Each structure stands twice: as C-alpha cells, then as structure tokens.
C-alpha cells in the first residue's frame, strides 16, 4: 500500500549514494557496459530509456500493488456470496492474505536481485503475479482464492524492492530523488483510483473480471518492462547470497534504537490503516444501507493522505522530521479519540466517518513519512537490507493488527476507532522511549 512504497522510496533516495560508497562504487553507479558512468550527481539521462518513459515504467510497476489491494474493496460482498463465505468478516481475508504474502517476501526479493540481476527477478515475479490473478479469477473455492492472493502478494513484493534498486542503478544524487518524486506522484493516484476501477468493472461483469483485468494490465507492464528495460546490474557487481552478510545487516537493523523504535511505531500506525482498509466496505454499507458511497469515501480519505505527503515535502526541511511526526501522532490520537466518542454515543454518520477518517489519515501520512526517514538515519551502509527488514516487520505485523481490528467489526465503527486509539497510544509510547522523553525537538 501507499505507506510501504513511500518508506522505501524515501529511504532509497536519501541513502542510495551512501550505499554505493559502501560497495566500493563511489566513482560510478552499477550500470551495464553500454551505460555512461554517473559522475555528476545531478545528471539525469543515464538510463537505457528516456527519462519520461523510465519514470512512467517505474510508477506503473509500483502501482500494481495498490491495484491488487484497493480494487478488491467493492467486490468483497460479491466474492463472499459467490464462494459461500458465511461469516461476513471472513471476506476481509482476501485483503489480509495478500498483505501477508507481500510482507514476507520483502526479505527475499532484494538479495535475489543483487545476486541474479534485476530483469530475471522482477520479470519472473510479474509473470507469477499474472498467473496468480488468473488462478484467483478461476477459483471455485474460497480457500483456493486465498492461496492465489497470498501467492500474488509474494510475487508483487518485487515491485517494491527491485524497482527501487533498478532506479538506483541508473540514477544518483538529485537525479535519483527527482525520479523517485515524479514516480511517487504518479503512484499516489493508484490507491485513489483503484476502488473506482473495481467498481467500474463490476458494472460490466462479475468480480472475476477484476482479477482478469489486473492480470491483463500486469502482463502489459511485464511486456513493456522486458521489451524496453535491459539488465542494469553488471555481472561483476552482483553479490553472492550469504547468510552471514544478511545476518549482520539484520542484527544492525534490529538493534539500532531509532531503526527498531520508529519501525515499531510505524507498524502500529500501519496496523490502524490496514484495519480501516479491511473494514471500510462493511462500515460504509452499515452506515448507508448499501456500499455505493464506498468509492467516493475512499477517494476522499486517500486524497487527504496524498495531500499530507505533499505538505510534508514542502515543510520538512524547515520544521524537521521529529516536530512534524510527533505533532502528527498527537493529532492522530486526538482525532481518533473524538471519533471513538462519537461512535460510542451512537452519533456516527457517513459524513462524520468520512471527514474524521480523512483527518486521521492526513495525520497518519505526516507521521509515517517521517518515521520512515528516522528509522533509516543510521542505516546508510545497509540501506537495502535495512529497508527489507523494516518492510517485513511493518507489513506483516501491521497486517496482523489490521486483521484483528477488521475481524472485530460489529456493525459500528467502535472496534475500528478503539483500535486507532490503542495503536496510536502504543506508537506514542514507543516514540517517547526512543527519544528518551525529548519529544518535538528539532531534528
């Protein structure tokens, strides 16, 4: 989802050149033989294809994850009805199993891409993603559908890890940051438009057609990638798979105070986000009598989170990551507490839900964007490994928390906002420990 890509993009853009120095590549980037070495950090044209096409391809690869999650939301009732899912909350497993696969595979794709190259790993993963979605479209049982969704999550995790490695091979310094920023602007449209995509397909066919269309779009992007993008990692720069090397990186990531602390704080907030995604379809249906307003509500919430990220990019250099993120975390808890009070009073409406949820997600965006950067502050020399470990923790643990919140749905928003308040307070306690009580200080 949005936050997971944002974490890796910010970390890689900030730490890409540092990691290259650690690999003995200070004078040039990992480019193929026919590439010009990158010596000017502001250089832009060092990729095998044009800048605009490169950005568009990267953004398209990243957007496939959001499409695989959010396009499912309007189809959950139809899937449950067609496959005989008696318990309404069990429909959420369509999202949860995808997230589990996506989180677990974070630890795998990066080392494989460093060993065998970007093209084979990403190409194989995209092909597996196409097949998994076709299996999901043909599923005759809910168990088979969940297995296909888990496999799809495992496969598409490559688009998070390998895509950024691809960018790092071709660009450096400010040029890399520019590619990341432009690609992320395009990518942010995916979670906003994906529910509309799913709803539109339901007007013309069954829920199975959603999986077919995702497979078709993924196959087109796979063909584009294979046709236009050569291997960007030179053979002599490929690193062997070494458990000792991986263990050293994992140990450093898990023992650094800021790394593990802000990773756990981000995990708590991500659990709240996943709880919202798991239960939003049922909540809208409960508040309105049907789920026709799901798409506009989801667009409003996702748009506020996107605007928060845009605001953060404009003010973070002036205000600092800690002041912004700590203040946003307090705002997240306050808005969630107000929303819980409204829900407990039985005064919840679709309008209060949409407005307060959008405000909470704006605070979420401001907090987690900076948590990601602070978790990577001392991880420059192992940026790829650290990001993989942090991604594994945040996505898998967040998915568990989100499943716990979603499956507690009882026809009201009380379980959701109880979870928001609890996880917000947990995140605040973790941040207070990491900062030794010195919150809101300048970075």
What is the CA-atom radius of gyration, in angstroms? Answer: 21 Å
- Helicity range: over 70%
The percentage of residues in β strands lies in under 5%
- Along the chain, the helix and strand elements come as HHHHHHHHHHHHHHHHHH
Give the averaged pLDDT, no decimals: 83
User: How many DSSP H or I helices?
Assistant: 18
Unreliable runs, pLDDT <50, ≥5 residues?
Answer: 1-45
User: In total, how many beta strands?
Assistant: 0
Structural class: mainly alpha
How far do the termini sit from each other? 27 Å
Shape: globular
Largest sheet: none
How would you sum up this structure, described in words?
- It is a single chain.
- The chain is an all-alpha fold and 443 residues long.
- The chain contains 18 helices and no strands.
- The protein starts with a helix and ends in a 9-residue tail after the last helix.
């Amino acid at each position: 989802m949005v936050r997971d890509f944002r974490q890796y993009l910010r970390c890689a853009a900030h730490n890409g050149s540092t990691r290259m120095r650690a690999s003995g590549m200070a004078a040039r980037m990992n480019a193929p033989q026919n590439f010009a070495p990158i010596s000017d950090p502001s250089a832009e044209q060092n990729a095998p294809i044009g800048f605009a096409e490169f950005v568009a391809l990267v953004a398209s690869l990243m957007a496939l994850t959001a499409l695989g999650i959010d396009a499912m939301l309007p189809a959950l009732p139809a899937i449950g009805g067609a496959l005989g899912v008696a318990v309404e909350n069990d429909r959420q497993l369509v999202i949860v199993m995808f997230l589990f696969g996506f989180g677990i595979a974070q630890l795998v794709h990066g080392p494989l891409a460093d060993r065998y190259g970007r093209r084979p790993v990403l190409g194989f993963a995209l092909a597996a993603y196409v097949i998994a979605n076709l299996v999901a479209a043909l599923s005759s049982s809910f168990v088979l559908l969940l297995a296909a969704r888990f496999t799809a999550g495992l496969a598409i995790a490559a688009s998070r890890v390998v895509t950024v490695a691809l960018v790092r091979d071709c660009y450096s310094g400010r040029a890399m940051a520019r590619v990341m920023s432009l690609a992320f602007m395009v990518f942010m449209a995916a979670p906003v438009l994906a529910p509309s995509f799913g709803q539109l397909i339901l007007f013309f066919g069954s829920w199975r057609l959603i999986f077919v269309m995702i497979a078709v779009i993924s196959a087109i992007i796979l063909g584009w990638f294979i046709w236009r993008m050569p291997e960007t990692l030179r053979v002599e720069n490929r690193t062997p798979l070494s458990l000792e090397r991986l263990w050293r990186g994992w140990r450093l990531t898990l023992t650094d105070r800021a790394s593990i602390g802000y990773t756990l704080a981000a995990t708590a907030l991500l659990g709240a986000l996943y709880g919202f995604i798991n239960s939003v379809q049922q909540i809208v249906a409960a508040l309105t009598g049907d789920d026709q307003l799901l798409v506009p509500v989801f667009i409003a919430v996702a748009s506020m989170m996107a605007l928060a990220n845009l605001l953060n990019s404009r003010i973070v250099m002036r205000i600092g990551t800690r002041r912004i993120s700590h203040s946003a975390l307090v705002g997240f808890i306050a808005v969630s507490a107000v929303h819980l009070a409204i829900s407990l009073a039985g005064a919840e409406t679709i309008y209060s839900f949409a407005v307060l949820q959008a405000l909470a997600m704006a605070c979420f965006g401001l907090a987690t964007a900076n948590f990601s950067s602070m978790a990577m502050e001392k991880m420059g020399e192992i940026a790829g490994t650290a990001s993989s470990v942090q991604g594994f923790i945040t996505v898998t643990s967040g998915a568990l928390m989100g499943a716990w919140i979603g499956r507690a749905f009882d026809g009201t928003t009380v379980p959701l906002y109880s979870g928001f308040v609890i996880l917000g307070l947990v995140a605040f306690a973790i941040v207070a420990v990491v900062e030794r009580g010195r919150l809101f200080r300048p970075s």
